[in-house]
Amino acid sequence: VVCFYLAAEGKEEERKKENNPSRVPQGKPGERSSVLYSAGQFFFEYLVVVSLKKMTDGRYEPKITYQFPKRENLMKGQKEEEERLLKAIPLFCFPDGNNWAPITEFTSETFSFVLTNVDGSRKIGYCRRLLPSGRGVRLPEVFCIISCLGCFGLFSKILDEVEKRRQISMAVIYPFMQGLRESPFPAPGKTVTIKSFIPESGTELIELTRPVDAHLEHVEFQALLQRLSPHLILHIFASAVLERRLIFLAEELSVLSQCIHAVAALLYPFTWAHTYIPVVPECLLDTVCCPTPFMVGIQMRHLERVLDQPMEEALIVDLCKGKILRAVGDEEEILPIKLQNEMLTLLNRHNNNNNVHTSEQVNALVSEAFVQFFVRMVGHYSSHIKWSKSGSGTFQERAFCKAISSKTNRKFVKKFVKTNMFSLFIEEAEKSRIPQEGKW
User: Where are the bilayer-spanning segments (predicted)?
Assistant: First the structure.
């Protein structure tokens, strides 16, 4: 999953970088971490609390009111990176804008966002927005865990524990998070146990288990299937494969982040290599004016503002009503019809047995259908890398395309090989004589 680091004041600079292919970040979630820690060493880098502070004009502005751990003795570059990160986080924790008012009831919600720094390092923000315990009117706050590791289910469970402790006291959160920082991130399929003391309850043992299939641990395909028909999912997939502009609309932040992560995961073993913002903050809505590819989520309340923007062709998807509001028009014709029908059959079969499958089974079934599409389309790529005596490889694109006997398949592949995601994949393949078949 790829995005650009979007501190508000750095928007234009980042767009310029995006237009320069050499600056497009590469890699996969968790593969590269921040300059401070290597992936897998720590569960998380920060836990921050973002609260709403009333300004002189009567509006509320999100501010970080708690940060764990506090870092000292950072080098200049590290300190600047931290400042940019901490400045951007509040925007994504309260992307709905500044028009809040104290309330008495609020259903807590979980969502996530992704930030990528200019050096290609990735961070994911796992958020739980909740109303602090108490009486009378009060404002919601967000507990946000920043990590370079992509595992939504596992971090949701951690946020459950944070919320439970928040209802007792902020002081009870610290020892739990300290224990988490001192524990190694488990390997796929493995479990780590955290000991945590809670007043009047005693010591609790909290087990955190990673899914066996690591590439699906940040994904919930069920969220997508519940809101969109298989037919529409294939239209969206076709647009994403050709790296077009995609806008998703929903009111709930959790729906936006879950569905967009799921769409990006359909591209595996390839990676979306352009602007990627699961929940766009209100102050960055003009992102939809970008002439370059993007995949973004916008709250439904901003629909009219989005439609009024002078944007180029884009696929606009309403996740609330399960329909496409605006399309390019050729989505039905992008994928080879035979393979398209086979994928529809597989997805419809899942829908007919919806109650039988667990979340993990749904993820495996859906992912397999799309991986098989890529295997049949471009799975022969390794046979068309010419190796020199020095060990470097050169991809023979023309021979690769000519090797496809089906005219409809070849027509699609000739477009797909021009995408950034295919180019990045082949660049990695050219560096190693070992085919990337483990990905398939």
Answer: none
